[in-house]
């Protein structure tokens, strides 16, 4: 029942994108099938609730069966906000002396090095996110079925939390200790 690293990296990469273009949605649909639509409906209906327990969080997702499912998920690290546009290219400088040319070369070289470093950091983040996906768990039967079939470790609830997380559409709630204990099924 081990999901392939390639599949997890693909899922992590797709779920990392801004989810606002048709191509990404089609790719997600190719990967997750009808589960994608079910998960998006949960997000649209604001049925993904992040229960903030003071730093640590758990998620509750509505269930058609009755009580909501409670998921403890170590969520992927979101991409950094897009960098601000660098200063607009100045139109051809009129004349460049040797010193200026060297300086420009150095600046361009530094920009290339920065781009390579950024790419490496991003790749590492995506690999770490893929590893997090491997450990996602939901107590629903759909999850158990997929896992036992060796298909993947997703169900519509896990996927709904991931989509809501990426889209910033999680409903947030803070609960007191007693309510939290009730959620967790322990007495406080
Ligand atoms: Zn589930």
UniProtKB/TrEMBL annotation:
Keywords: Metal-binding, Zinc, Zinc-finger. GO terms for biological process: double-strand break repair via homologous recombination. InterPro entries: Znf_SWIM. Residues 124-166 form the SWIM-type domain. It comes from the Eukaryota. This is SWIM-type domain-containing protein. GO terms for cellular component: Shu complex. Residues 76-99 are annotated as: Disordered. PANTHER family: ZINC FINGER SWIM DOMAIN-CONTAINING PROTEIN 7. One of its GO terms (molecular function) is zinc ion binding.
């Amino acid at each position: 029942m081990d999901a392939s690293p390639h599949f997890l990296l693909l899922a992590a990469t797709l779920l990392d994108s801004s989810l606002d273009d048709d191509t990404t949605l089609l790719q997600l649909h190719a990967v997750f099938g009808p589960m994608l639509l079910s998960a998006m409906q949960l997000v649209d209906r604001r049925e993904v609730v992040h229960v903030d327990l003071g730093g640590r969080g758990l998620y509750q997702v509505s269930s058609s069966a009755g009580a909501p499912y409670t998921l403890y998920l170590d969520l992927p690290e979101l991409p950094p906000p897009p960098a601000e546009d660098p200063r607009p290219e100045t139109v051809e400088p009129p004349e460049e002396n040797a010193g200026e040319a060297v300086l420009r070369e150095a600046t361009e070289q530094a920009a290339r090095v920065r781009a390579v470093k950024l790419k490496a950091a991003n790749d590492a983040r995506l690999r770490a996110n893929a590893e997090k996906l491997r450990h996602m768990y939901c107590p629903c039967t759909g999850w158990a079925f997929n896992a036992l079939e060796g298909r993947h470790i997703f169900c519509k609830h896990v996927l709904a939390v991931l989509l809501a997380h990426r889209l910033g559409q999680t409903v947030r709630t803070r609960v007191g200790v007693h309510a939290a204990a009730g959620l967790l099924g322990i007495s406080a």
